[in-house]
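Human:
Focus on the backbone:
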Amino acid sequence: MNRSGGTFGALSAMPIGTLYVAFLVAPLAFFLVISVFKYDVYALYRSELTGENFRRIVVDPYYRAIIILTLKLAALTTFFSLLLGYPLAYFLARTRTAWRGVLLFLVIAPLTTGVIVRTYGWIVLLGAEGMVNGVLVGLGIVSRPLQILNTQTAVVIALVHILLPYMVFPVFSSLSGQDPTLEGAASTLGAGRARIFFEITLPLSKPGILMGSGLVFTLSAGSVVTPALIGGKDVQMMGQSVYELVLHTLNWPLGSAMASILVLLQFAIVLLYFRRGQRVAADG
């Protein structure tokens, strides 16, 4: 009985396992292999092993600055997504209004629109003649339009808007799964709202915070379209560098090395999330 169940489970997992290997493991393995080959102007790469590609990325100040900037912007995006997303998730989890379903749909609605469309929307808003500068100049806060586009601030603003749902829903799920009687019991024992939140609600929602933070960080670190359109040439992230090295410069080994470092950083974040999640579960 157990053997047949195990066989059925293995057969059921084969389709998704095949897709996983074909579209994730195989491309990643290809990038890792190419990253240790030598660059060739005519053949793109030669099958000669070298560590020069990784050494160049680490030693060259230009590429090292790109890695640091990527980590910085991904961390800022994660921080502000949590800062804005947690109160929203808390409200959605605690409200009993009949409109909660509508509110949840409004949170997820931006995901139904393409990234390019949403990015161009921010270009319109943040441009020199956009609505943001129009309001600032109209209210007399500034005397002339500010330079918002082609800055790191603009990239973070756009990424937070695009990735906010990936923070809200894990936190919302974590908050919704909490036992509501815990807060009632704490209140009966004399705990105030602030103490209940910081000693019960917030600690119990850590799994959702960790998952949401991991998703937002990895997605923002690997983003290409939004930094390219919002940040321009002045804001260069790792995803853009991989795109340019592979498709424009045609330096596949160097682009593969950069992509490998990006993927390894993302996997490291995911691994830290799982290890931290296990600790939280064990402590709980």
Notes: Strands lie at 37-40, 44-49. The chain has 13 helices and two strands.
